[in-house]
Every structure is written in structure tokens, then in C-alpha cells.
Design goal:
Two copies of one chain form a homodimer. The first copy, chain A, is of the alpha/beta class and about 350 residues long. Chain A is about 45% helix and about 15% strand. In chain A, helix 5 links the parallel strand 6 and strand 7.
Chain lengths: ~350, ~350
């Protein structure tokens, strides 16, 4: 059995404590400075206030200030922060890491490197680490459909772990797998991370249909929704994810497997990303939508902003043509350029749906 | 402008009258013998009782007995019957068809030929036609996500028309396209029909999760559903659809485009196929589920039965391996062999998710 330290006590980081504890590992749950109240409740009541569940026996809560003790003796460290915390965690963990540590992140997103190219978050994290350790610590990530509250409820969950090092990803999978937490492995970390990030962008795209329905006055006298439109956006979303996988030379079947179509499905069930897309579909500007959703981290908007910056460069390099990615372009127009929503359905699926 | 005759006045056949009428075609809506009451109401009140909408101006209702007049002068004939009516429509239309007719079907399903191989329904229909006309009439089909009530409500809808004859499918698309009915075209009729049929099977698969949730007592004290499980089934469904497309040499991107992932999404929104899967997930036998859903045509069960017959032959020919299609196999076990539901999640996605 291993010592596993989870850094970040939000929904998803904390939820991984359940399979780990069930496997008999020593699990240490470290809050960030934003999680102080969560950790206090975990310490005092053995109750996680966000997940609304009792902590499994064996999970030890730590405040941010106690991180050095929490890392002591750990084999595996899980980064449970969101995309805005990636640099912080790199800087915080950096001095504490040893070459043999396995580091696995749940963060979803993409960033840009100095030259404006897309960069996966595990590589952003890596670059924050001290040089002497940077290329020795093995970095992995988790992709695939997982609502944290269901994992903590020990509901059947299927995910994919990715790491460029085959032995490391197999070790991690073995440490986490339970009869309810099913883990596939891949060395295609890039493809996995693209799917994990892009599915948040495309969930906003699917949700536009829900907002357009509200804008039109809701269901009509005969009860018609706008599911056909949402479904077209769903198919286009998977199609565009597949194009990105081709561009980066990644595993194309991710588009229609667990990391792509599967993860998109679960993200479309509900939550903040769906609320964002619904507001935009209804006709709200991104500024209005941000005001309404104040206080929530909008990973969907963040990735669309990054893609807005990356797109001109992908076009200049001939990797994306002017007719490609019509759904992403519509999202960028609204979220980055503040333009009114315009969904050009005829441009979907290669542009053959002309009237 | 053309004369277009729709045969079958159920939901989907009738709904195509809206874009056709909006395009200024003369539209004749012919009921089958089962649709007599629908046609009577259409004639007397200009109101479609199933779709709960007034008929568009220019749509002319005909009883089954009036089919000869209804076909007179038509350029396009749309078959609006379900899979159990394909042979009937072939026999009924056969004597009335001329070589220049364009015939387009909305029926979803697959059948078996005399040697036990899978056969798409347009080919089943073709084989019911008189020999002198069989290879002259051009047969097409419609695939992709389309809830009939939304199409009749002129909601944005994206579909794919398939026909082996490029000119015919382009002519059909031109006749049907409106600013709300977006039509893509393909000559890969086989791939399109596989998706249209299989998505009904796999919707049963996704819905198992809804039933398993009910069986477990519903959401737990912290509100956890089983969306993670449904999402895993969704990804596996798309993965298995892609395998079938590979097997028949069809267009693989259908799996993650409009005919596959897109159509699966809309079918999973609700309806009889979801109800069937939910009942099976809950632990009902197929016999019990059929009794509860008495009177409804269960296209999902029908295609799973066909696949149950086709599978041994696909295996014998080396096209399907013993570890392939675990979701379809689970559905066949329950629906064809009356076995208790057993979802082997670890066998999904190539079987790497071992515990």
C-alpha cells in the first residue's frame, strides 16, 4: 500500500480519496488556501462539506500550511486544483518533489507556450518545477467522464489515465482501480488532454441550443424542444475534437470513445458549463453571463479564450482551413470577440448542408 | 416544384410534409391501414392528431385505398413506415412505381438476408419490388438526429440523406432543404443505415444506467446519479458503431458525426427506446418490459434481436472477436436469451479497464 497525497480539496480532487482509501492506501487530503474551511470541517467532523459525505476512514486532512508533512513519504501526488491553480501547484510542490514521485493531475485545460502554440497543462506544470527535477518526475493526467459526487458515492465510473511513461501509468492505474473505478491507460497524454479540455468548450456549444430554446419562448404549443439542434452540435463537437486529434497526431478513436464523446455526454448533463452555454444561447453577452455566474470557475470560457488565441496560428501553419471548426469559431466570436451568437449550421460537417 | 407522396402518416413520415410544403411542393400524405383515423382527422379538420399540429397548406391527405391517385404524377415517394412495414410498402408500391421515381425511406433497422448476413432496409424494400423495376428505381434513406415533432415545429434540424446514386441524393436534398431542415448527402447508404439502426440498439444500452439507478433506490443521500455509467456506455456505443462501420467498409467518421454520436444523443433524450433500456436496467425481463410497453413498436429490441442472429456469423467469418462488442453482447443476452443483465465494464474499450 502507498501513501497518496491529494493537493486541492475541491470536488474532483477530494472524490479520488474514495477509491484510494478503499484500496487501503494512506490518503492525505491537503487543502489549498481557498479550501481552509473544507479542511477544518474534514478535521473536526470527518465530513466533506462540498461532497456532502463523510470522509472514508483512513483519509487524513491537512491544511495548506501542513503540505510538507503531507508529502512526506508519499509515492503518488494528485494535483486536484483547477486550471488557474496549475502554476501555483507547480511552484508549491516543486521544492518538495523527489525524482521517484508520481504526479497525476485532474486539471482540464490547455494553455499557450511562449510562441503561442497550444500546450497541455501537465507540461505547464512541469515547466514550473525546479530544473533539477523537471524531467525526472513522471507526470500523468486523468481524462474521461467522471462527476465527482458519483465517484465519491462509489458509482460505476470509467476513466482514462494518461502518462508518457507506460510503467508509471500502469502503476497509477493499479493504485486507483476499484470494482467501481475502472481505469484505462494510454501513453497518449496529449490526445487525452486535448479531449479533456475541448469537451468543456464543446459543452458550451451543445448548451447554446438550450438557450436558443429559452429565447424562442420555450417549448411550442405541440411541445417541441430543440433537441435536434443540440444533437447536431453534439455531432459537430465530436467531429471537431477528432480534427484536433488529427492535427496533433493523437489517438483519433478518443473522439468517439471515453475521453471524447463519453466525457462530452456527462458534461452535457448539467453544471456550470451548461449554464454558461445556455445564457449565451439565450442572447446574453459573455460579460452578462460572467456576471450571472459570478464566483464560478468557467473552464469552458477559459478554454475557448485559449483556442481563440491559438486559432490564427493554426491557420497560418495550414493546420486549420477557413471552413473548419465552425462550432468553435461561433463560440470564439461570442466569448472572445463579444459578437452576437451566429450558428452557421450549414457549415457543419464539412459544409455540405447548404440550403 | 414536384409532387411528393408520403406513404405512412405516423410521426416522422408526416413531419417531412412541413419542409416539403414550405418549399412549395405538392405534398400528398397517404395513411396506411393503421393510419385511417389520422387521415380522417387530417381531411376533416386539417389537423394531425399525432403531431398535434395543423397541416401546412398544400398538404393533401389520402386514405390507404386512395394510394393509386396519390402516386399519380409524383416525382418523389417517401416511405414513412416503420421497420415492420417495409415489406408491405414494397409490395404495395411495387406495381405503382415507374423507373424514374425517387424513393426515400425513413425506416430505421437492419434485417437478415437468406444466408443470415445483415441487410439494410432499403435493400429489403428493393427486393420486394417487381423485377422489372427493382434496379431502376433509385432508393434513398434519411439518417441523423431528428425528432419528428421538432421538424414539424420548424426547429433547426440537421440530417443526412444517403443514396448510392449521387445525382439522385442531390436532387432529393434540394427538394427537402429549407432554412431549418439542413441536409447533408452521402453515397454511403450502407454506413448511414447501420448508424440509423444501431443507434436504437445502443440507446437501450445507455438507458440501462437510468434503470440501474432506479434499482439502486435512485439518487443517494448526496444526490449522486449514475451519469458516469451512462457516459461510459455512450462512449462504448460510439466505439462499437465505429467497429461496425469498419466491418462493412463504410464511412468511419459517421461514428462521431451526425449519423452516429449525434443521432445517439437525440435518441437518448427520451422516448420508448429509453423506457425499454430503463426497464431492463431496473431488472425487468424483456418479457416484462414488453408487457409494460405494450402497443409500442420497439425498434431498439428489434435491432438487438437481429444483431443476436447476425453475431455468430460475423464471428465465424472473423470479423468480430470474442472480446469485441461487450455492450451489444450484454443487450443480446438480456433481450434475446432472457438472461439477467450483466454489464462487464472492464471489457469496454478494448478490455483494458481491468481491476
Amino acid at each position: 500500500m502507498a501513501i497518496v497525497t491529494i493537493v486541492g480539496a475541491g470536488f474532483m480532487g477530494s472524490a479520488t480519496a474514495w477509491p484510494l482509501a478503499d484500496n487501503g492506501h494512506t490518503v492525505r487530503l491537503v487543502g489549498t488556501h481557498l479550501d481552509a474551511e473544507i479542511i477544518t470541517q474534514c478535521k473536526e467532523r470527518r465530513f466533506h462539506p462540498k461532497l456532502q459525505r463523510e470522509l472514508p476512514p483512513g483519509v487524513q486532512p491537512y491544511h495548506a500550511e501542513e503540505i510538507t508533512q503531507a508529502i512526506e513519504g508519499a509515492e503518488i501526488i494528485l494535483s486536484g486544483v483547477n486550471s488557474s491553480g496549475v502554476r501555483w501547484i507547480g511552484q508549491t510542490l516543486g521544492p518538495l518533489l523527489r525524482p521517484e514521485h508520481l504526479l497525476i493531475a485532474i486539471t482540464k485545460g490547455l494553455d499557450l507556450d511562449a510562441s503561442g502554440d497550444l500546450k497541455i497543462l501537465p507540461d505547464v506544470l512541469r515547466d514550473e518545477l525546479p530544473e533539477n527535477i523537471r524531467n525526472q518526475v513522471r507526470l500523468a493526467a486523468i481524462g474521461g467522464p467522471c462527476i465527482a459526487g458519483e465517484l465519491a458515492g462509489r458509482r460505476q465510473t470509467c476513466v482514462t489515465f494518461g502518462c508518457r511513461d507506460q510503467a508509471a501509468v500502469e502503476r497509477l492505474a493499479t493504485a486507483f482501480r476499484t470494482p467501481y473505478y475502472h481505469v484505462w491507460t494510454t501513453t497518449d497524454l496529449v490526445g487525452l488532454e486535448y479531449c479533456a479540455a475541448l469537451k468543456n468548450a464543446y459543452t458550451v456549444g451543445v448548451a447554446l441550443a438550450f438557450g436558443l430554446l429559452e429565447k424562442s419562448g420555450g417549448t411550442d404549443t405541440a411541445g417541441a424542444h430543440m433537441h435536434n439542434l443540440a444533437a447536431a452540435c453534439y455531432g459537430q463537437a465530436c467531429t471537431e475534437m477528432e480534427q484536433f486529434l488529427r492535427i496533433v497526431g493523437a489517438t483519433r478513436y478518443f473522439a468517439f470513445g471515453l475521453p471524447g464523446a463519453g466525457d462530452l455526454y456527462v458534461t452535457c448533463v448539467g453544471g456550470r458549463t451548461i449554464r454558461l452555454g445556455t445564457l449565451l444561447g439565450k442572447g446574453h453577452s459573455i460579460a452578462e453571463a460572467r456576471a450571472i455566474l459570478a464566483g464560478l470557475t468557467l473552464e469552458g470560457a477559459a478554454i475557448i479564450e485559449i483556442m481563440g488565441q491559438a486559432l490564427p496560428r493554426l491557420e497560418a501553419r495550414g493546420l486549420v482551413g477557413p471552413g473548419d471548426l465552425p462550432l468553435l469559431r461561433a463560440l470564439i466570436a461570442v466569448i472572445v470577440h463579444g459578437q452576437p451568437l451566429q450558428l452557421r449550421l450549414d457549415a457543419f460537417f464539412g459544409g455540405g448542408g447548404r440550403v
